[in-house]
Fold each of these.
Amino acid sequence: MADKDLWISLQNLNLGLERSPVKLSIEANRKRDAAHRLSLVVKGLHSSQNPAGIKIMMPKIWKLEGRVTSRINEDGTVQFFFAQEHQMLTILDNGPWTYKDWLVVVDQWTRRNSPDYLRIIRFWIKVLNIPDDSKEDRSIREIGGVLGHVEDIHIQQPIADHAGEVWIRIPIDIDVRLIFARYFSIPDSEAPVLIRFIYDKLRKFCSACGSLTHLAATCTFQAQGTEQLQLPAPPQRPNQDPPPSNLNQMENIPHSPIEVADDTMGETVGSNINMDTSDNQNFNEAQGEFMDTLNSGDLQDKINATFVIREIGSVSVPAPDRGTKRKGDAVNEEGEVSTTRRKIQGQSSATPAKGEVDTPKPPLPE
């Protein structure tokens, strides 16, 4: 044992440190740059995202299994090497990406000397409640500016089957606390307008402070001077049923609010840039019913309650429309209806309807 310790200590001698640094040749640097040019580096934001799991699962999530090579770096990041440049660019364009329901940062190796290397996640963010006359480039950029630099704007004009939508793409620093709602003073509006932000492909995060690295159950952030946010209910159209809500179902669960958020939703929010208009309207209308006076922490819990994500393998898809019945339920209900219908028809043939007199028929002549 002593000999082994002695051998290890001999290997750690600093002999040679006094000599001048050795500079690698230009050819060696050129070959290294060429070998790494088509590579992406991935880093998890949560301790549960082990590098070995990222190395195995990300090619499957990208649908590139068997077509990329990878290695785990000493700093805990995972580097993926692509054969074609379009594959790498597609991964960057279709982000953000998640592993174990937590976001991962994906960056190009060629950006390794940039100050924001492995610190930026680009989100497509849907902006709700912008007045129609403010849906122009300058106003949208100023509204999105509260979140960060607006890189791109997509305005979908309303058509017969879909309402108009406004999307912005913003690079978000992984240490920034997300913002989901802000009031804006807009000309010709008597009161400040509440603008809401829906982050596409956002999964687990902290509903107490907006961090991307932990859940509310472990949050230590103390908000200074938290103000109550007044959320007006949207106007109800005539002959319109009240919007569905998951809150009534959640109230029956015997958990604390934090446990409900962690167990039921996993503090998960998601949206889809190709979401149907009916889904968007249900979401917008459902919020107005229960958002009267909420502080910032309660607000985000209620937001999360309106979004439910289910996992299918490694791909996240929005849950079905609230209020729709499963196929088996529909069959059972149809069977009950037909059974009831048969009973009613049988009763109507044997028993006179209410308010009618059972008059006997006259005897036939002999």
Note: The domain at 35-118 is CATH 3.30.70.330 (Alpha-Beta Plaits).
Amino acid sequence: MQRRLRSLFISQPRPPQNLTEEWRKIPWGNKDRDLLFVSGYQPHNDELNQQRILLYGPTGSGKSSFINSVDSVLQGRVTVRAAADAISQESFTKKFRTYKIQKGGPGTFYPFAFTDIMGIEKDTNKGARVEDIKLAMSGHIKDGYNFNPVSKISEDDHKYNKIPTLNDHVHVLVCVVSATTSNILSAESVAKMREVRLAARDMGIPQLAILTKIDEACPEVNADIKNVYRSKYLKKRMEELNVALGIPLNCIFPVKNYHFEIDTDDDIDTLILSALRQIIYSGEDFVNNL
């Protein structure tokens, strides 16, 4: 089983790929529709101030960059609030931190927030512990907690939340995986991610996945991002992720994060908004079903 999982995620050379007909429709040139939806969204549950969206995944997959990219789309300018790193082989994120996104004037925020955590690593005493991620999903970890790869948070820790409210709970779990460095997904990492997924299932938390760095993974997408849903290479990567973790294909969204651009781009925004819209839908359904 482990050998089969490893074989799924060994990096392969990325020669030009033949394109096929578009296998998922997306409204290119109509990002205003999704922007209008996001701007007008309000939770129907009066007890909920904002959806909490927890990102998890291997080190270097682009979790922090995705938060920055969503912020960039909604601000209309490229932002870098969540610290990201392109050099370190270990998780650059060390603390449990939630990012609210400003809407309009100071002190006004969108009714959803992203929680960033330390990346998952294959070694036993490295990266975020699965036990901590489970506690985070049930609202027991406060912002600012410094992850300890060796041991989970103690109930005596001042960052342990003994009585979580609905707003402290995670309402959507999002797995973030890079399309380029997917060899990071060793059998050990996949096993940890699968354990997180099963725990979220038991809590009833909806789950989606984001496939990042699609421009680096596929030359045709690098040439024109509108080729994303015509790329056989990316479709294969999504199918591999579906097999390894069990996340349905219609819950996996390929995106390009902002990383070298200094201005936003409508086509990049369209993919990010498409994923964000489904994340919000999922969280809203979960909260309404409680």
Note: Strands lie at 51-56, 97-102, 109-116, 172-178, 207-212, 252-254.
Amino acid sequence: MENKCKQKKLLHCFYVLPLFFVFSNAGAFDYGEALTKSLLYFEAQRSGRLPYNQRVPWRDHSGLTDGLEQGADLVGGYYDAGDHVKFGLPMAFTVTMLSWGVIEYGKEMASAGELEHALEAIKWGTDYFIKAHTNPNVLWAEVGDGDTDHYCWQRPEDMTTSRQAYKIDVNNPGSDLAGETAAALAAASIVFRETNPHYSHILLHHAQQVFEFGDKYRGNYDRSVGVVKSYYASVSGYMDELLWGAIWLYKATDREEYINYVINKAHIFGGTGWAITEFSWDVKYAGIQIIASKLLSEAKHKEHKGILEEYRSKAEFYICSCLNKNNGTNIARTNGGLLFTRQWNNMQYVSSASFLLTVYSDFLANSNQNLSCPRGNAAPEELFALAKSQVDYILGLNPKTISYLVGYGLKYPTKVHHRGASIVSYRERKGFIGCTQGYDEWYGHNEPNPNILIGALVGGPDQDDEFLDDRGNYVQTEACTYNTAPLVGVLAKLNQLDGLHLIGSY
């Protein structure tokens, strides 16, 4: 049975591509098309009652009784990958990254005509989190069971697997899940502040309550929700998520209590102690450190300069390791130039690194600074060049000349490990397809999936740039929402620069 794209360990990093390679293919990709398709993917992952403007025609309503047995309305949200479990931690990280992308590059999304779709993708997640937060000290963590789900190969519309729901509460804490959910809600409240102020206020209210709950009743959520351990175990613990939630609440509220939390707990929670070479659904330190670094440019934070400088030092360790400019600890890369963290679903680390590199490049450029690494300085352009090279690799500039963003380009994975995409659409064949029937008729056959999972970023190639397009090769062909989410903002920026003919001179 599959172990999923969630399996992971900690702390790895990458190398930088030569600049001549990065820019030799400038203008070859339609980043606007890639942006459009990346946002379309989230509609394919929707659970619940689909809206009238649903753009993915092969999906229909599903999970309409979620939470019913527990007396809660848990209809909605996202399936994380190719299965039908709704895992709270990666879902929240997905929404946080989509929101951060809009905060940084919303104007670029608007100019591409995609901002509304980005807002819809965020709101589909936050609407669910509001439902899942049924009490100030209760947050529903998961709907469905990964183990029983993986015995079935069904369309979500036919789902017969367990929809048991699991929660965290005072007696069963989950500070990591609460912290990430608070971050998602707080970041989204910033996104909707101008266009939907009432909704923004509701999001912020829930964010503050969820954070307070997670901070007061501390513990790892995978100890309270044991069924998640094989899929989304909290390897990094909960301290990074509490710092993550606090810094997003500070950005959303400008309240001193949250910046004081980030400053006062910097050492004991590892924010200024961990030098990290990974940013993911589990490990948030690099993201925290980069946001904290950006606060240094604001005069009102002078009193916190010392601690913020420590955060910045660790942020730059991450960036330098991506650029291969640390002494000793750097992230590996393939011969084709792909940042390579680990075999299982490596593209999640590539997209998140590309986003952080882009954000930090902008920060350095806007403050007229260069990056100082142990093995040499780097101008902002070099950071962005690396980010662009990774996106270009994803879109087809790689030894296999295949686009790992499904549906983009002439050649892309056609046998994605995804139940809904691999079985004929419910709209075409309404007859029930059972667990084993799905495996017998659809999982094992060699034909391309009948439905294209447009915008999905699959796990990608191995350390030798090799890739096998096979439904059973879930290590490489399964896609997850948090793979695509960080890519959205970077694609928006690349599209804008491409439109201005500034890609090669940025």
Note: The chain has one domain: 19-505.
Amino acid sequence: MDAHSFSCKPDENATFSPPAAADLSKYNIVIAYPLCGVFVRKGGKIAIDRDGGLTLGDSHYPSGDFCVDTFLENGLRKQEVLSCHRPSKWIRVRTYLFPACKVISLIFLSITIACHLFVPRLLAHGGLYLMCYAVSLFTAFSTGFSVNVFHEHLGDSSCVNLAIAMQFGFIATFFWLNVMCFETWRKIRGLAYQKRSRPFPSGIYVLYGWGAPSCICTITIVMQHLAPDNVWGVIKPYIGISRCWFREDIGLLLYFYGPISFAATCSSVFIVLTFINYKTILRNFMTMSGPQRERDREVEPDKKARPPKLPPVQITGPIQDFSTKMKLFSLMVFCWITEILSWKIPPMELWALTDTLNSLQGLFIFIIFLLNRHKRALVEEKFPLPFNLARRCQKLMGKAAPNQSKGSSESIPHEKDNNSTVSSVSMDLPKTTATS
């Protein structure tokens, strides 16, 4: 078996003589895969017992759950095992849970995109970049959903195409987050140094946000179809060999996690610089408002002078943008740090909660979008009905709460003593009677 393509090839130099407790001539050697849907490649000390079962380390596999063969990898031949991977309870649960969570994310991502399309004023001041960010994540989640649900019915070409589309969507998500962090940093820096920032051509942002992921995916496609096998120094993606994704960790690191790490690092740098400039704005405003506080202290010496807040008209928009980008960046960093940790630190059950939260990113992005007061007001102006319904539900819940508390207080029995009787009667009498 070729270790890179996972396909059997004729080889006159290969010998098949695994250690067995009985004579192998008494067995029928079958050229096939294990009798299970999911299997993994394992190496180690191989031992086949008299019943045809396999002992590999601390695990034992019946005859139908493994195959032993000579693997050819980088010119070296070694005997290894393809063994069945029996899914745990969590794996069976996530088979249905993750697609459902991704559907929820896709619904809320669609709402976010539709709000930007039907409310053109949202596209101003960086709103276009947030919409592109949502479109990228929608592409990644929709292709991931298709792979999870229809993987048994996908052909080789469809499997590779969906994997490339998912790679493009996730990488573009980070690159558009990079664009938003850079644009916010430019605005805050202009306020900090009281310089009007020059308008940056949006075409450059579009070229960077869509063009860079397209180039990375194009290189991946070229290496997938044109790169030779088993050549030292050539890292081939090997997409769609054993699953609709990268087969080896080195290819996943080079073509996927590498570009994402670059974009995330750039975004973190812009976030830090933006926070430093924000502190500069605070210091400048406190310096400018110092004389006014001194005059207030002279007029009202007994009143404690509090530092005034920043004038909302001047920096409300950029600061809210910075808050939104900070929340999006924190969300993406949390999701991908836990994703990488779950990739390398077993068992998968340990990361059940974080993986579920990762699949609900679309919902959290919609919540972060609505937390921006200016954007929420624009959406409410265009679509007032959902907000009115939400307010009515809130009022009904508010009315129900006092009634419940009143009913609970009435159900408490009063103590039958003179003091309680006099006090209760006094509360019911008119004011003059109670006084007399």
Note: The beta strands are 39-42, 46-48, 54-56, 59-61, 66-73, 76-84.
